[in-house]
Amino acid sequence: MNSGENRQVGPASESPPIQVTGEISASQSIDAATREAFLELLEANYLSVVRAVVRDGASRSDAEDAAQHAFAQGWREVRRNRWHRIENPSAWLKRVAINHHRGQDRRTLPVDQVPDAPMTSPGPDELAAQTQAVLAALARLDDETRTVIGLDMDGFSSAQIARELGVGEQRVRDVRKKGRRKLKALLGLDQEGGDR
């Protein structure tokens, strides 16, 4: 197969879909069920990974690049026969994507500015003004707080977030509380009542 065909993931291909040196040899092929399971994981989690990276301050296209990188890293883990060690694949993919985005340092917009109109390049076209304000406020949080708030928004428990970040649950609760207060202040909601 040519390199263009090798990149196609699916049970119909005979050779491993992503060509990366130093992993499983040609004699140790990955079975179709494993490939299919990984494709299902990709389909089920792609949009939530992109959303997590957008919440971290990325443009839609940068978030998609980071998500693609995370899934490629996941596939490498499958090829290295280490994927089964990952306890929470969804959180792992988000963490890898966010770390990739932060490492790229390719933010094109200042963190305190978000355009009033959708960008002409592919972007979060359907975002409402309220969502844009929340994204701008999230971008002004420090990395740890933004990660905790983002994972919390995705429905992860304090225990799951603590495990993924390698910190205690109390630290997660403290960071979440601090982050919510700061978001309220940034969004001008702190004068509307008490903290929940």
Shape: globular
Q: Which structural class do you get from the secondary structure elements?
A: mainly alpha
User: Helicity level, as a percent range?
Assistant: 55-70%
* Mean residue pLDDT: 75
Strand content: under 5%
DSSP, total strands: 0
The SSE string, one letter per element, is HHHHHHHH
Count up the helices.
8
Contiguous uncertain segments of 5+ residues: 1-27, 106-115, 117-126
The description of the largest β-sheet is: none
Separation of termini? Answer: 58 Å
Counting structural domains, the number is 2
Cα-atom Rg, whole angstroms?
A: 19 Å
Note down, in words, how this protein is organized:
The chain is built from 8 helices and no strands. The model is unreliable at 1-27, 106-115 and 117-126 (pLDDT under 50). It has 2 domains: 30-108; 126-188, Winged helix-like DNA-binding domain superfamily/Winged helix DNA-binding domain (Arc Repressor Mutant, subunit A). The protein starts with a helix and ends in a 9-residue tail after the last helix. It is mainly alpha-helical and 196 residues long. The protein is globular and about 60 Å long.
